[in-house]
Amino acid sequence: MRTRLFPSPPGTTRPRTTRPSTTSHAPMHATALKLLAIVLLALATSAMLAGCKRDSAADAPAGSANATNAAETGGVSVDGGHVAEIGGDPASPDLGEFHVAALQLGSALDADRVVLADKDQFSPSDTLNASLLSTGAHPGLTLVARWVGPDGKAFAETTQELAPTQATATTFTVRNAEPWPSGDYKVDVLVGGHVLASRPFQVR
Question: CA-to-CA distance for 148 and 8, rounded, in angstroms?
Answer without folding.
Answer: 10
